[in-house]
Amino acid sequence: MYDAEETQWWYAGMRAISLALLSPLLDRHGGAARILDAGCGTGNNLRHLSRHGRAVGVDLSDDALRFCHTRGVAAAKASLLRLPFPDASFDCVTSFDVLYHRWIADDRAAVAELTRVLRPGGVLLVRVPALRALWGAHDEAVHSRHRYTRREVRSLLEGAGLEVVRASYGNTLLLPLVAARRTLDRVTGRHGSDVSFLPAPLEWAFRTLLEVEARVMRRVSFPVGASVFALARRPPEAGATRPSGYNPAMESSTR
């Protein structure tokens, strides 16, 4: 992941779509937004988010946190279910391909916790893998718990009191290839993750298709795809409560 995140077609393409949805909102803060990446992995998304303000991440993996420190980004060890930050701390919270994981036994509680640290008027961007029909060897390799529908993600966010601004499928143009790969995995019994570098022409072609989706998704939502992107806003009047797991010392260590 550390080696692939900046240039490999899937990582780069997913980031392009995510930033296409987020950047217009973050630009309003004039480079001063406070941003949390919940489940930050090895920290490359934090590098890009930092262009819009002060970005910090949390992750449960000690290996991931070591890579974050190598990148020079701020990250702390914490679960999405017990974030070490006060209420209403962030203008923007992101969670990229985390809620689907087996470590997240209660996705509704996780979304409630992400909402708690979001300022009134702040935005949450969630990305998760889509469609149970696409379940395959990759899902087993990365410890997936669930692949979502757009309706399920919308329900999760609205259940936490958020207003859904956009909900779209993504990785749509490549969906036939993804479906074919998953079918072949089941037929052949292949095991392992799909994350790898392809021959250069395919890397360029697949990344370009996702960049096209990013431009389109600024205005149009896709009706089907291999991922779900959902952007939601916390209403200005929403209240907040502090969880028992709040640790001020950890919050200050990430500033």
Element layout with pairings:
Elements (H helix, E strand, L loop, with lengths): L8 H18 L6 E6 L5 H6 L3 E7 L2 H10 L2 E4 L12 E7 L10 H10 L1 E12 L7 H5 L8 H10 L3 E8 L4 H14 L11 H18 L9 E7 L14 H6 L2
Helix pairs in contact: 1-8
How would you describe what is shown here?
The protein has helices at 9-26, 44-49, 62-71, 107-116, 137-141, 150-159, 175-188, 200-217, 248-253, and strands at 33-38, 53-59, 74-77, 90-96, 118-129, 163-170, 227-233. The chain has 255 residues and is an alpha/beta fold. The chain has a 7-stranded mixed beta sheet, with helices on both faces. Helix 1 packs parallel to helix 8. The chain is globular, with a radius of gyration of 17 Å. The protein starts with 8 loop residues before the first helix and ends with a helix. 42% of the residues are buried. Mean pLDDT is 90; it is low at 238-255.
Order of helices and strands: HEHEHEEHEHHEHHEH
CA distance, first residue to last residue: 25 Å
Contiguous helical run count: 9
Main structural class: alpha/beta
Q: Which spans have pLDDT < 50 for at least 5 consecutive residues?
A: 238-255
| Strand coverage percent | 15-25%
The dominant shape is: globular
Nearest-integer average pLDDT: 90
Described by strand count, sense and barrel closure, the largest sheet is:
7 strands, mixed
Describe the strand arrangement of the main beta sheet, using strand numbers: 3-2-1-4-5-7-6
Number of DSSP strand runs: 7
Q: Determine Rg (CA atoms, Å).
A: 17 Å
Portion in helices: 25-40%
